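How a chain folds remains the central question behind the approach discussed here. In the encoding step, the backbone of a single protein was reduced to a row of integers, each denoting a local shape. We regard such an encoding as a compact summary of how the chain folds. The sequence in question and its structure tokens are set out directly beneath this paragraph:

___
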Amino acid sequence: MSVRDRFVRRWLLGACLGLILPFAATAGLKNSDCLDCHSDKTLTKTNAAGKEILLFVDAAKLAASAHKTNTCAACHSDLTEKHPDDNLAAKPVDCHACHERQTASYGASVHGRAVKNGDESAPACRDCHDSHEVVPPTFPASPLHVTKQAATCGACHDQAAADFAISVHGKALAAGVRDAPTCTDCHSEHNIKSLAGDSSRKISEDVCSRCHASERLNTKYNLPADRVRTFFDSYHGLANSYGSTLAANCASCHGYHKILPSTDVNSTIHANHLVETCGKCHPGANEKFSFSKMHVDLAAAQSSSSDLGSQINWWVRKIYLILIIVTIGGMFAHNFLLLVKKVKSHLRSSGRPIQRMNLSQRWQHAVLALSFIALAVTGFALKFPDSWISKLMGSSEPFRSGSHRIAGVILMLVGVYHLIYLAVSKDGRKLVFDFLPVKKDLADIVGTARWLVGLRKEKPQIGRFGYAEKMEYWAVIWGTVIMGVTGLMVWFKMEVTQWLPRWAVDVALTIHYYEAILACLAIFVWHFYHVMFDPDVYPANLACWDGKVSEHWQKEEHPLATLPALEEVKLPNKEAALIPGVKKKP
């Protein structure tokens, strides 16, 4: 036998002994030995709290329970053959040995925490599931069956059980409506929650909304379908959504266990009790205040069945919407036409004789800008389908994805066209030359930084394209390549995974998303400032429209753009030496 085989054999032997030895002490105990005493229906004991406990075990029910294949000793492993002569009482059964997940969940519950804090009266597993007659909760005999759950919990929570029994939920359950909520539907199962200290938002969203926002239940039992939506549209609901701990939730008005219909004179929302109910949060509330509706659906308020206040509210809303559209629309039209007039006048007076972009470059810029905007809008609508951007597009996923892909193809095509333009045209080759980084760009960055913080009196003199334009140009090329490659990987994921692992597509999607955020922020923060918000070009640099700029702007931003200009600009020898073709002054 090899060393490896001997090791495996010893390991298996040790493991078997580890499983067997804990039960060695009880190996001699048989169920019949235990039932000799515990089959006595009068067998009882008094616990530390002075409560008499019945120790009778019904052998027939034990044989029909979920633990029918277990022996007594399997659960009561602490007992020996000397029991009961050794006067050692059986210790509480450790359910964790077989029910690890349930025990962990119970330990985090209000009951489990009470046990850990030394509360001997707190319920344990056997108090809810029984001890020797455990059956699944779906069995009618189970104390946790929906028809018996309230009675089981009522052993400790008698008032809550009594209130629940007369509530709409309790009556529905008693009438055989199995969808009606019972204790565990609101308080959870093993991880029992008290809900007393929970936030208003949690109670409204995680408890009440589970049933009252269900289209299936509302349709099946003819319940109002808008209760949850109209609550969250109200002041209380909005305050809840934004984390208020003081705003009323569903239970604040309807109650907790004793939930009654508004037609019941004992209901907290009956006309006779509304002042009292509202007054809990609004001291001084009177009848006129309390008669305001909480679940207001303005969309349906125009119906003849609605009350007078709701109909007036609906008409006021409609009138204001029309007033807003007409008033603000007129203001916008007036100011837009005024802006156009003033921009035209300004351009005529200032003159813009210098050509900065030719027609081909302007078309390329226009297609690039439109496809980029389309990609940004459709991309974020795909990422956030519940956002207002998505809703503006009709919330159609096929439309969003299709338009996103079309815009992506257009962006890549204009990128390919731009590369061809750079290669075959004279203006394109000059564009590449002017966009190439040179040593002066680094000096300009340092010089501009010193000028911005006041360490230099004059800003550096810039040529046709400075460091700002160059960084943006190469960033566009870099971003187009990255977005194109990752977008194609996500689009054709089935083909990609023929060669690469599936996680490569996930990584591509992550890069695509964060590169999109980076690109959008760069456009807003960097590009929009230079072409829109800079006071020298506000409201926009129209070179992208007709290719022209003013002499003032050219001298201010790019004084070194033409060779004749170099003769008029006095540069330090240090900066002049960094410009190709310019010699130092003698």
